[in-house]
Amino acid sequence: MIKTGKLNKYFNKNRKNEIHVINDIEVSLPDKGLVVLLGPSGSGKTTLLNVLGGLDKVKGEIMFNDIKIDKYKVSKWDEIRNQHIGYIFQNYLLLEQLSVYENIRLTLNMVGITDKDEIDKRITYLLEAVGLKNYKKRKAGMLSGGQQQRVAIARALAKNPQVIIADEPTGNLDSKNTIEVMNIIKKIAETKLVLLVTHERELATAYATRIIELQDGKIVDDSASSGLGNLYRVRQDTDIYLKDLHRHELNDGLLNVDLYSDQEDIQALNLKLVLNNGTLYIDFGNQKFKKIQLFDQNNEVKLIDAHYEDEQEAQEVHSFDYESIIDETKKKKNQPVISLKHSFRLAFSKIINQTKRKRLLFIGFLISGLILSFISASLYAAFDAAEENYMSRPVNMVLVTVKDGYRATYSQIDGATGLTYMVPRPEQHQIQISVPYFDQFNLNYGKDDRIYLYPHFDLENVGTSIIYGRNIENTNEVLLDVSLLKQINHEYSSSIYKMLGINSMKEITGRTMIFYGKEFTIVGFTERQYGTFTMDQLTYYQTKYWTVFEEQPKYDTVEGYINEEFGNSREFFVHSTDVKQTIAYLKLNTSFEGIEDLTTIERDNFMDERQTLFISLSIFSLIILSVTWVSLFFVMRTSVLDRMGELSVFRALGVRKKDLYKTYLIEVLVITGVTSMIGFFLGIYYITNFNPILIEQGIVRVTFLSTIFTILIVLATNILFGLLPIIMILRKTPSQLMSSYDA
């Protein structure tokens, strides 16, 4: 069954207080029998027991059946403990908040037995075998020490293991319960290997079939034992032996009554029995009794029709044949001890039933989520260089600087590849959109009604950027860029356009734009021509320079106006469909000292401005997250420590680490979901629905991807810090966990 090579284990190795607790121990154990590890405190017997049961690490080789284990492999030992080993601990290690039935069912679920009938059959048989048949529903924490130990025995036997490990199973019991427990263990050893630790030589001699004696970590004696222990069963307080009492009979053919009393002389009993509608009523009159108790199938008191001496002999021949009643075909794939449903219920109950201090922490998590929504939206806006955030002019513009003493001319630039137009002195112009009511009564437009736009002249290619309406067909028509709507619909704007509902592409298209006193029909809207109105370039200049004193335009061509403006400007702009080729052409001209892509300039300026903001927001977000992480760590650490006993039981019984991780993962997710995530979504909802000006101004940016990314970051970091306490705890061996719990 179990065979070892030379095993060695040290405590405090290479220190002054080093202890060689297992010293070159080599042992071979049979398939059945009661093998006792005997020795005084500190002899190494419990450590050896833990090592042989996979509860602790050791240097050396262990063979369990055909499984060879030369290093402590957690997953392998978990599987062995789960399937093949049952444990009876000195301190019982029952889950006291659960019933007797639930404690035993837990081990059956672990090995894949979920069929209710099979579970009921096994538990009923085992509880009857240990004398606790009517204790199924009793909470484990409400039982006496002897009763708890018998439940532990039933739990150990439930999965029908090959080996039973018993660590000082009678150490906390009185003499009566000691004999009861040892009687049961002795019966178990008839068909299974029971490995038991004790320091009581008399107990070992009375019951063991083999005694291995240890001293200072070494085996000093290994011998067979007759095990002729006294198997009598001590009388339990809940057992009433009827033949030891005084009996009085009443039999009139219809009513048969037997009265048993522990006193020979008793007062006459005046009782009335009433049977009505299937219900039996008992009237005791004025008689006083210390206690009145009715018997049913769930009663803990047993009525035994025998003398106490007769029962002793009957208990000696009592058989234990558990394997005959179980059905191994009911065993399925291993099941998690704690279901997902139970894990969620447990997590929510913890939040609801938390202390006032922890509830304040949860409120803090919610607030941190709210703050984080603003920070993440701001970070994304600062990090995301979307054109609409920094472009105030059309894309594909080139800025050219002329050297001192030089003057640019139209002809120097006209041959550039990709050139569509040039603007020597780009400037914003104030325009107005005609509002009939205002125009009819000659009312003045207010400050918020002023619209400032740059001119754009690429009529040949503008058609591809039209998103509403049509292209320009006449010189008195214009296109507006959709970015204009941001000015009109500004949250704090009180413009007449917004008030009258003239604030959409549909409402504006077809109206008149007033530019330098002349009217132009708005025929549609473009995109990516940021902050512009598009019109014929010659018409633009003739309108701009037209005065009431001029009957004819100053120039008939664009070139004339541009050359005139070149005389007053050292900088000019060129619009191109091929910026790289245009820049390459312009660099051939020695009179130009600076040629730059305007889109690149504006993006770089934007990123420079946002870099400081990005760093500040990053630091602030790290502070908020760090506070959340630390708080969550301590919340989960408290949760782990509160359930230390439960964790010790689970690990000792062979529950896998990953099953326990899942339980705490769900708790972290629930805490995060009902606190940080709620706060985060409230913040996002506020930004998008009640404060869109922040989005319009590029201060914040909320997208599906940015939201998902932030959620993933929060979940990932919360999971990491939330699971850290359980990960740290479960690094310990089951033996170390039990020691921590006992301490």
From TrEMBL:
Organism this protein belongs to: Acholeplasma brassicae
Protein name stated in the entry: ABC-type transport system, ATP-binding and permease components
Localization terms from the record: Cell inner membrane
UniProt record similarity statement: Belongs to the ABC transporter superfamily. Macrolide exporter (TC 3.A.1.122) family.
SMART domains, A to Z: AAA (SM00382)
Annotated transmembrane regions: 360-383, 613-635, 664-687, 707-730
Domain of life: Bacteria
Gene Ontology MF annotations: ATP binding; ATP hydrolysis activity; transmembrane transporter activity
Keywords noted in UniProt: ATP-binding, Cell membrane, Membrane, Nucleotide-binding, Transmembrane, Transmembrane helix, Transport
SUPFAM superfamilies: P-loop containing nucleoside triphosphate hydrolases
CDD domains assigned to the protein according to its UniProt record, in alphabetical order: ABC_MJ0796_LolCDE_FtsE (cd03255)
Domain ABC transporter: 2-241
PROSITE patterns: ABC_TRANSPORTER_1, ABC_TRANSPORTER_2
Membrane topology, from the record: Multi-pass membrane protein
GO cellular component: plasma membrane
Pfam families from the UniProt entry: ABC_tran, FtsX
